[in-house]
Design brief:
mainly beta; twelve-stranded antiparallel β-sheet
Amino acid sequence: FRGTRVGDSLVAASISTEWAIPGDVTLDTGLAFEDNSDADFETLFTAKATKAVGDYDVSVEYNHYSEGTNVVGDITSELGLGVARTVGPVDLSVTQFIALDGDNDNYGEVGVGLSREIAGKVVDIKGAVGYVIDGTDLTHAQVTLSHDLTINPFDLKVTPFVTGVLVLEDVGGIYSGAEDEVIFGVSVGKAF
């Protein structure tokens, strides 16, 4: 989570939906249940409103963590203010998080994403660099490669992925002892 290791063998289940609301705003909401070896079972609620303004997508999101993040400060709720733009084939974004309960050292994230054909398969490539304004430090960089597969007859979307995480800075002891790592996983989803 945000460049830190919070246990082995994360297992998560989630449900999400999207609505078009007045003002040409898209509202995404989600509820996730997560469990791993080093943390208590956690519920995560998210809501994100996005509006296109010219060539940019401007968003406001709310995240609530039932067990707190325990990363760059222990927060249970936060507000995220984001701006995104597509430049050619590349999606660029920056999101600044504001802690509503707890302290997150003014954590934010810069993201980049694109899709490329590799060996005849479309591979999604997503990157992120985390930062904290309070210490003017970069926390981590990560890159995820994934490929969507559709499994019939159930129309399940199966997405194997690999993520590489590079720890850049020890922020307030949070990253002490943290190591660069590679994570493998798979997600399975179905749209209704």
